[in-house]
Amino acid sequence: MTRPEVALAGSSRGSGPLLQVRDLQVRFTRRGRPPVRAVDGVSFDVAPGQVVGLVGESGCGKSVTSLAIMGLLPGRGVEVGGEVLFDGSDLLTMSKDGLRGLRGRDVAMVFQDPMTSLNPVVPVGTQVTEVLRRHTDLDREQSRAEAEQLLRRVGIPDPSRRLKEYPHQLSGGMRQRALIAMSLACKPRLLICDEPTTALDVTIQAQVLELLKQLVHETGTAMIMITHDLGVVAGICDEVNVMYAGRVVERAGRRELFASPRHQYTAGLLRSIPRLDAVKGGRLTPIPGSASDTLPWDRGCAFAPRCPARAQDCLVPDLELTVDDERPHHRLRCVHPVPPGGGDA
Amino acid sequence: MTGATSTRVEAADRPGGDVLLEVRGLEVHFPIRSGIVLQRTVGHVRAVDGIDLDVRRGTTLGLVGESGCGKSTFGRAVLRLVEPTGGTVRFDGVDLTTLRGEQLRRARRRMQMVFQDPMASLDPRQDVESLLVEPMRAHALEGGASAWRARVRELLDLVGLPASAASKYPHEFSGGQRQRIGIARAIALEPELVIADEPVSALDVSVQAQVVNLLEELQARLGLTYVVIAHDLAVVRHISDEIGVMYLGSLVEQSPSEQLYTAPLHPYTISLISAIPVPDPEVEDRRERILLAGDLPSPAAPPSGCRFHTRCPFRQPTRCDDEVPALRELAPGHRVACHWAEDVRDGRITAAASSHDPTAAGQVVDQARAPGVG
Quick one: fold of B2-240? Predict the structure, then answer.
């Protein structure tokens, strides 16, 4: 496997998908009880230079999806099905060595909590150069210089000093940036960000998001953005997948999705959050119930127990993700969608 | 809750009336100790460093700021859950900082707290009834056990939980329901002041609105006064009548909530508001975003002069570095601690691009297009 010309590969090769996730299934088996279907048939594509968002609340399966793509789920007690095609080869059936060669080089991940994903007893510099030494033929001196460049690039002041420091000596925002620097060390073609800014303050979040946006534009990296924050999605994602109870319930371009959400869950989410730019209104409109009030998909729409538009015909097993009649790029898993343009109805 | 309810109604009848909580020069300095046997104090973390605030009866004060700005410590110091090292807190005319022992314990009945993480603040081994009866027993509420149990049902109803919840344990509830229990416990003694520290940030987005609505409903019904501490400005703006913005232990701006968003005056508030993502791509694409450079400085060694000057995009060569700005009233009820607030407001000073690092920030992004939201 020769190393492809990464930086420009995305933009020069057109927009064929780099990653194709097909009917991904993740089941956590439990002794004596039926398995939990954390991810239940998720499919999506990511093209180079494209940012695809996975949005949903805790427990909807968005993080498990990313771990399954990276092959980071534990082997025991987990059944993974479907296909994850990266550049044509299936990551799910790939050998451990093959995966190891890919992870950190072609596919990298930024986790939510930088304190738990950095090794506390190893200096930051060693952790960044480790990736470089593993995947490139830079020597010690070169990789140190490269690491310094990386830290500078992600906006860490005084990088040569920071390289010698331990994670606890860095602030939260700096740790997250160090983590991003590590994941970018080998110019990955696919970057998976799992709630990269959730642990950060808003002013730092703005810095990190701006940095990620720049990277996608400059290097043509494909990115999967996992978040629960619709504001973050609105700012960075090209395409958005809204997940509920392990399945994608709505998929659309971000402008379309926010201008005219069709699924009752998406519309409900958008209605329930107070907005800074809108006139201060009266009461908020929450979604009743909680994420634990779901129906198994094989008995009907999982959102039906909380849905304002539920009817008897919502209880059909295994609703399909269908093309919206009016919008060819809009996908929807709903029997009684919000009428188009009626996002505020 | 007959007698108490009638006094509540009176209180609610005069919204924006008298000042219930008056904080003057509140300071909480935590000592930094060094050494193993002889612990010498080598410095102080100035978590809260001289805050003046008034909260009127029946209104909500929101406190926002980034982590480490001292907003939670402020809330705890008001209730004396941490001891203030200076300043006064007058609650309904009584200086809480001088109360001792039994007096303080009794005063606490009138002020309660709702915590961020309901899983951590509810004892997992106590069922809901016992959780809610505990404060009543501690303050020997009249009526005895049977009246307390009736009150538990009343409280559960008030926060929208079924009566059957009384015999369940915290782990049997969802996050939103657990927070309802936390709120029920806080209002069990019919307090006048409730301090809510990040009441919704641990909850799922779809559930946050339920809890925000509940807090508003209870305020209307019981005439409660709230201090809501949160980092989410959208939520704080929704719930508050007045908002205080904190930075490194001090208040940098205080204003009626609507004004803070339409006409923020302090450079920090301006940057903070511009940094918040709005769930609308149209707005996101054309808004003017001021990216602040760097991180929050350490509260153990705060910068000289204006504490924000190390990150301020509007920093001026004079005064900012060496002169501490006082909180000045620029409009009725709108106070700001910035030497140059008028010039920033009138556009005579514009945000400067940061010199140290082009990727890191400090620059105004997308300024070419139409100005963003207010």
Answer: Rossmann fold (3.40.50)
